[in-house]
Write a structure and sequence with these properties.
Elements (H helix, E strand, L loop, with lengths): L1 H30 L1 H4 L3 H28 L3 H26 L3 H13 L1 H21 L1 H15 L2 H11 L8 E3 L16 E7 L3 H4 E2 L2 E2 L4 H8 L14 H10 L6 E4 L2 E5 L5 E3 L7 H7 L3 E6 L4 H4 L6 E4 L15 H10 L6 H28 L5 E8 L5 E2 L1
Parallel strand pairs: 2-10, 8-9, 8-10
Antiparallel strand pairs: 1-9, 3-4, 5-6, 6-7, 10-11
Helix pairs in contact: 1-3, 1-4, 1-8, 1-14, 3-4, 3-14, 4-7, 6-7, 14-15
């Protein structure tokens, strides 16, 4: 009986280590699932990854407990086992507490004062080693109590995954609801609008003209009308894009759990409802085909009644660009949610660039497909120049 209890305890701690690693993804799924554009396939991928990681940690814990007799060595091995999962959890948890600016400031300070930070880290390691030499069993006990306290996150993870078993975001529409109009206005010319998000005016323009080093932008500007005093209907993508597509100004919008909400004057949260007053609906009424492709928000769901073809990608979720089932998707998503500051940034930047490359490739393929369209179409393309790309 005691042997079985020990095995279950090790399994519970192994699950804790797994949940700690996947905490950024699980917490994002719990708080802002709309950003991930979660699907049933993603739930199966996450469960599979958690099970795999749990089995891996369980084997290591069994080895440490059964083969290692020294309490000092056990402590160091447990710390080595805990360091990556805890780092994944702790940094994201601090951002949830509103300490993101502090972490960025501290990261900048650490980068500029490497010697001081390194000396401080060595001091704490020396201090910990001193107490470990004096009281190895007490340190071992405290370490396990700490891990037991963190194991409460297993319940949060389980509840979050269970609550999203049926979540299946629409990320792709293709001829789902073809245009019912027969081109009443005899539309012939295509409407193509390009938006370049996160590309500052000052960076692109110099003395009112496109900087000569951006050759392709200069060619585009030479054949276009350039409005230097244009204003955005919002201060960020979250408010600007819905405002542009619906012809409204949303001053107070937030993402909450599963959808976009507008905050009323009475500070009440109401669903952001997309009605017929949007550019896609107007275009369809005029007889144009309508298309959407992109990421960050579930545009296929938001405008599904007014689109002929749509492909939507999310800000984080690798499952949005990988069609097949892959246990790597939740792992890469965790890396992409990690902060850009070192040491996590060393891994995050690789994951983010790979995801960005895949999204750009799929967006480019979609654009080429749209350009082959024989009927008149309405096409708005908005590139997010840094970490994401969105096109409609």
């Amino acid at each position: 009986m005691a042997f079985m209890q020990k095995k279950l305890f090790n399994l519970w701690i192994a699950l804790t280590l797994s949940v700690l690693f996947f905490y950024p993804l699980i917490a994002t799924l719990h708080d802002n699932s709309i950003i991930l554009q979660w699907r049933v396939q993603n739930t199966l991928e996450l469960v599979s990854a958690v099970v795999l990681f749990t089995c891996f940690f369980y084997v290591l814990l069994r080895f440490i407990h059964n083969k290692i007799l020294s309490a000092k060595i056990k402590v160091w091995l447990h710390i080595l086992l805990l360091i990556i999962p805890f780092m994944s959890f702790f940094i994201f948890f601090l951002t949830q507490l509103g300490l993101k600016d502090f972490l960025i400031t501290f990261g900048d300070y650490a980068y500029k004062n490497k010697i001081s930070v390194f000396a401080g880290a060595l001091f704490f390691m020396f201090l910990f080693g001193f107490f470990l030499l004096k009281h190895p069993r007490k340190i071992y006990f405290l370490l396990f109590m700490f891990m037991i306290a963190l194991s409460s996150l297993n319940l949060l993870a389980g509840w979050t995954i269970l609550s999203h078993i049926k979540t299946d975001t629409t990320i792709s529409i293709r001829n789902q609801k073809p245009n019912q109009h027969t081109n009443p206005n005899n539309a012939k010319n295509n409407f193509i609008i390009f938006l370049f998000d996160e590309l500052s005016y000052e960076y692109l323009f110099k003395d009112g003209n496109v900087n000569p080093r951006f050759i392709n932008f200069k060619r585009l500007a030479d054949m276009s009308c350039v409005y230097h005093a244009a204003l955005s209907p919002g201060q960020q993508t979250l408010t600007a894009i819905p405002g542009l597509l619906t012809g409204r100004r949303y001053d107070n919008i937030s993402i909450r759990y599963d959808w976009i909400y507008r905050i009323t004057a009475k500070q009440k949260a109401e669903y952001l409802i997309i009605d017929k007053a949007n550019l896609f609906a107007v275009a369809k009424d005029k007889g144009y085909r309508t298309f959407a492709v992109g990421n960050y928000l579930p545009y296929c769901e938001m405008f599904e009644d007014y689109l002929d073809i749509c492909q939507s990608f999310s800000e984080y979720n690798y499952g949005g660009v990988e069609k097949g089932f892959s246990i790597i998707n939740p792992i890469m998503t965790v890396f992409n949610i990690w902060p850009r500051q070192k040491p996590q940034g060393l891994v995050k930047n690789i994951a983010a660039s790979l995801l960005q490359k895949k999204r750009i490739e799929k967006t480019k393929d979609f654009i080429y497909e749209v350009m082959q369209e024989k009927d008149a179409f309405f096409f708005v393309c908005s590139y997010l120049s840094s970490s994401h790309t969105f096109c409609v």
